[in-house]
């Protein structure tokens, strides 16, 4: 059974998360819940604590905070929860919390903890239809996707504000299915090491001119990301020409998509990388 972390922000649909918690708990999962301060206006943390058996985290600094205790125990709640997450969900995700996550603003428990996780992240936006279509929201969602987060498109229908349109939180049974698919997907390539190459080599003719090809590296990037999502330990060797490799924070152990990356220029460099990595890998894919 899995450690499921749920962040609840102050969308009107927050009360529906009680049903989601109930369903997931019934399957034997451990639920660790955090909320934004404003979400307390909609759903009671006490009620959630009774259901999950764990404290609900809202504030980064508790009233009885003591730095001496932290230094002694070497444990900080928002980091510990991020570490233990098998999946990290924000539901409902308000336009505001989506924007803060997209910008890397870490000013509350959820937005700080999410930066510290390397688990899969599922964002379930829910808001008024005009807020959903606003270019700022759409831009922020695209940014979250580029980090490797998965976004559930809201459902359409009657909204709490009295209009009809897109913005409803999907049925909690549909969210539960999505969570289950992410959790089971992670097991498919568990224990496998996958090496993917992407993009074209660049052979210099002289200091100015080169011979190369039109390979973009996009297919290799997509394969590397998918292999990672399916649980593999992935190394992606990409051309220096490849646009937007999987993660901007490459090769750092705390990067979000933890895909090891190397870049090559010439075919000789590529050959050296492949030979050095090949024997450690279960699968080699060249794109
Ligand atoms: C009654 C009510 C319902 C709201 N519902 C939503 C909503 O469904 N989605 C949303 O993005 N914001 C909604 N808001 C606005 C957010 O609560 C507001 O932007 C808040 O600052 C978000 O803070 P948080 O992201 O820290 O929870 C609602 C506000 C009120 C007063």
From TrEMBL:
Single biological process term from Gene Ontology: coenzyme A biosynthetic process
DNA/pantothenate metabolism flavoprotein C-terminal domain ranges (all copies): 189-247
Keywords: Decarboxylase, Ligase, Lyase
A GO molecular function held by the record: phosphopantothenoylcysteine decarboxylase activity
Pfam families per record: DFP, Flavoprotein
An example Gene Ontology CC term for this record: phosphopantothenoylcysteine decarboxylase complex
Domain Flavoprotein: 3-171
NCBIfam families given in the database record: coaBC_dfp (TIGR00521)
Protein name as catalogued: Phosphopantothenoylcysteine decarboxylase/phosphopantothenate-cysteine ligase
Organism of derivation: Candidatus Roizmanbacteria bacterium GW2011_GWA2_37_7
């Amino acid at each position: 059974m899995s450690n499921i972390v749920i962040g609840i922000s102050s969308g009107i649909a927050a009360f529906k998360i009680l049903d989601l918690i109930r369903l997931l708990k019934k399957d034997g999962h451990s639920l660790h819940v955090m909320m934004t301060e404003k979400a307390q206006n909609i759903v009671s943390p006490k009620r959630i604590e009774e259901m999950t058996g764990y404290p609900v985290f809202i504030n980064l600094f508790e009233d009885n905070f003591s730095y001496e205790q932290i230094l002694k125990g070497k444990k900080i709640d928002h980091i510990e929860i991020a570490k233990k997450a098998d999946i990290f969900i924000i539901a409902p995700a308000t336009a505001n919390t989506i924007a803060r996550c997209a910008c890397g603003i870490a000013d509350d428990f959820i937005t700080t903890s999410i930066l510290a996780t390397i688990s899969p992240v599922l964002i379930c936006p829910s808001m008024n239809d005009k807020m959903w279509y606003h270019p700022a929201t759409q831009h922020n969602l695209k940014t979250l996707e580029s980090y490797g987060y998965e976004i559930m498109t809201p459902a359409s229908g009657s909204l709490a504000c009295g209009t009809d349109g897109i913005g409803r939180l999907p049925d909690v049974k549909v969210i539960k299915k999505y969570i289950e698919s992410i959790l089971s997907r992670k097991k498919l390539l568990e224990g496998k090491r996958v090496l993917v190459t992407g993009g074209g080599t660049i052979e210099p003719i002289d200091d100015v001119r080169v011979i190369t090809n039109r390979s973009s590296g996009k297919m290799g990037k997509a394969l590397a990301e998918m292999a990672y999502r399916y649980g593999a330990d992935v190394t992606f060797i990409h051309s220096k020409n490849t646009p937007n490799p999987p993660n901007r924070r490459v090769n750092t152990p705390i990067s979000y998509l933890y895909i090891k990356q190397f870049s090559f220029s010439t075919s000789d460099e590529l050959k050296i990388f492949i030979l050095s990595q090949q024997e450690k890998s279960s699968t080699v894919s060249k794109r």
